[in-house]
UniProtKB/TrEMBL annotation:
Similarity section: Belongs to the protein kinase superfamily. CMGC Ser/Thr protein kinase family. MAP kinase subfamily.
InterPro entries xref list: Kinase-like_dom_sf (IPR011009), MAPK (IPR050117), MAPK_ERK1/2 (IPR008349), Prot_kinase_dom (IPR000719), Ser/Thr_kinase_AS (IPR008271)
PROSITE patterns cross-referenced by the UniProt entry: PROTEIN_KINASE_DOM (PS50011), PROTEIN_KINASE_ST (PS00108)
Protein name stated in the entry: mitogen-activated protein kinase
Cofactor or coenzyme needed: Mg(2+)
Record EC number: 2.7.11.24
Entry-linked Gene3D superfamilies: Transferase(Phosphotransferase) domain 1
Organism, scientific name: Littorina littorea (Common periwinkle)
Length: 228
């Protein structure tokens, strides 16, 4: 918190986060709790993603009603669709979290430090502006959609105003990751191929899982080496 990260550090850390997330998503798994405290760094700036306690197999049709009650971790990195829908969210929730982490690296403080559920949504809309009618349709829950529509219209705050010293390419990628509509949000492969990460991008050195996890694969039945 006391030291501002250089653009080189931000770029390298972001690349490693996305490289790790590409592997996780290739296994058909959502991490669901990406945040700075779940990223491990050593003295040579190697980064690892940790804490898979909330990770689940990706299933857009699954009802995640219990997700928020079990999600006792900080809400600051939650995608808006998690708070607005009980089901229908996808790997894009992790990309949103990475966007929040990128913003925090650029600004040295959390972007959306909501005190509670509604405050969190207000923080998000206060920066992104009010969603369009088209984007509102991605909210499955009628009550939640009605609440968003009842709020006063808000204009989008330009990222350059929030992070005047940030690299323009970093802000472009940030905008694509922090998109309200998950269907329009950039995915992890697209994020890795973004010009901001050009110096590190190497699809041949970005591992993917040998096979995706499925509901039939009970973790207790897998040999230790496979789990690793």
């Amino acid at each position: 918190k006391t030291q501002q990260l250089s653009n080189d550090h931000v770029c390298y850390f972001l690349y490693q986060i996305l490289r790790g997330l590409k592997y996780i998503h290739s296994a058909n798994v959502l991490h669901r709790d990406l945040k700075p405290s779940n990223l491990l760094l050593n003295t040579t700036c190697d980064l690892k993603i940790c804490d898979f306690g909330l990770a689940r197999i990706a299933d857009p049709d699954h009802d995640h009603t219990g997700f928020l009650t079990e999600y006792v971790a900080t809400r600051w990195y939650r995608a808006p669709e998690i708070m607005l829908n009980s089901k229908g969210y996808t790997k894009s929730i992790d990309v949103w979290s990475v966007g929040c982490i990128l913003a925090e690296m650029l600004g040295n403080r959390p972007l959306f430090p909501g005190k509670h559920y509604l405050d969190q949504l207000n923080h998000i809309l206060g920066v992104l502006g009010s969603p369009s009618q088209e984007d509102l349709m991605c909210i499955i829950n009628d009550k939640a959609r009605g609440y968003i529509q009842s709020l006063p219209l808000k204009a989008k705050v330009p990222w350059k105003r929030m992070y005047p010293k940030a690299d323009a390419k970093a802000l472009d990628l940030l905008d694509k990751m922090l998109t309200f509509n998950p269907n329009k949000r950039i995915n992890v492969e697209q994020a890795l191929a973004h010009p901001y990460l050009e110096q590190y991008y190497d699809p041949g050195d970005e591992p993917v899982a040998e096979e995706p996890f499925t509901f039939e694969m009970e973790l207790d039945d897998l040999p230790k080496e496979r789990l690793k």
